[in-house]
Specification:
Number of strands: 9
Radius of gyration: 21 Å
Strand content: 25-35%
Distance between the termini: 27 Å
Shape: elongated
């Protein structure tokens, strides 16, 4: 991924936080049939030097057979993103040399996925994934709430993967290339617009504003 120095993030804790906050990832690989992508929920674990991702695909999805070959694959975790209008830059009124752009935070995780078809592993994985996503519900649903024989049938329809992360790349493009006044204008503009990820991005852009910069 292209990462100019002012957008580059190397802090594992910061990247892991995004991966946990936005666990729905794009899993991309290149095999005998060419490029293939699957979008799927993930569970990130603090194992290994860069973390371990657990996930599953539908058995009917042919992508799993290519992943089973053990070639390197990429997972993309998309954080806050949004359009930035040049109308928010005070410098527009000074010289007019401004253009639109897009701010975003993203993490790329690289590794070689390993197939997991053991029923006990799959049951444990979907139980953990469910608990992760149900944690804010008033009455969290659990895998054990469904009939055991029904869960057994559903487990036969998926294939699990362990994805030991060998490399992490983070990029937070949050107007760091603009001067202090323009960054302040972006933060205020995002806060006023308030669409989608705007409020989160406003905080991220404000975090880049250092007095005297």
């Amino acid at each position: 991924m292209y990462r100019p120095d002012h957008y580059r993030v190397e802090d594992f804790a910061q990247m892991h936080a995004l991966m946990r906050a936005k666990p729905f990832a794009a899993l991309i690989s290149c095999g005998s049939s060419g490029l293939y992508a699957t979008h799927l929920p993930t569970v990130l674990k603090d194992e290994g030097a860069h973390g371990l991702i657990e996930c599953h695909l539908a058995r009917a999805n042919p992508h799993w057979k290519e992943l089973a070959e053990g070639n390197e694959a990429l997972m993309i975790f998309q954080g806050a993103e949004g359009y930035i209008t040049p109308n928010w830059y005070p410098s527009k009124t000074l010289h007019g040399k401004v253009v639109p752009t897009w701010n975003y935070a993203v993490v790329h995780a690289y590794g070689r996925p390993g197939v997991m078809e053991d029923k006990d592993w799959l049951r444990r994985h979907v139980s953990e994934l469910t608990a992760q996503q149900e944690r804010n519900e008033a009455q969290p649903w659990m895998v054990t709430d469904a009939p055991a024989n029904y869960i057994d049938v559903m487990l036969r329809g998926i294939v699990g993967f362990r994805f030991p992360v060998t490399r992490l790349e983070g990029k937070w493009k949050m107007s760091q290339n603009r001067d202090l006044q323009d960054r302040d204008g972006v933060a205020k503009g995002l806060g006023q617009r308030g669409d989608g990820d705007d409020l989160e991005m406003a905080e991220l852009v404000s975090g880049q504003i250092v007095p005297g910069s």
